[in-house]
Amino acid sequence: DAKTTQPNSMESNEEEPVHLPCNHSTISGTDYIHWYRQLPSQGPEYVIHGLTSNVNNRMASLAIAEDRKSSTLILHRATLRDAAVYYCIHGVNSGGSNYKLTFGKGTLLTVNP
Amino acid sequence: DAGITQSPRHKVTETGTPVTLRCHQTENHRYMYWYRQDPGHGLRLIHYSYGVKDTDKGEVSDGYSVSRSKTEDFLLTLESATSSQTSVYFCAISGWGGQGAYEQYFGPGTRLTVT
Fold it and tell me: Which of A18, A88, B68, B98 could make an S-S bridge to B49, C-beta 3.0–4.6 Å?
């Protein structure tokens, strides 16, 4: 199974940066790292994904370790609306159309005003 | 927002009755997924589809069947509902982004209670 390890919970203050860590020691060379988040009472929402290089988009940045066994999701300035469960996932491509994401329990991020 | 809807949004049913949940998309995406979410388990994949009439099992497929007769609709059926199938069900869709990496877009969820 494609397993990732994340802290159960983290806390941050509003307008401060947040670094959410993830370990994915079993990742293979072609597996992408994905991050999703889930706000209360909503479906999961895509945040960012990457393979080897660091990635930036309007929501966050993804820093990937050189050995690809860990990554960090960076929220540059946390807002109250960023309070959510953040899932780190590595997708497994088992050939052809078989690309699946396995969600773990994620990290519950609390943002304090 | 991706055009994805689920129906019904809430349902209460009795043990032993059949239940069908519908996922409808307007994005013409090839891939569709059904997940369930329970406290303490995160999201778990039930079944997925990689094209019309092409489906495969996920990690928790027992007691569920699916059908996809057209691109826009993916149906999840509980042939005989049990209390253990009380859950929130999410549908997701995605395209194909080269080398397999792609974004999944999730629907709003269906809360199913089996009494």
Answer: B68
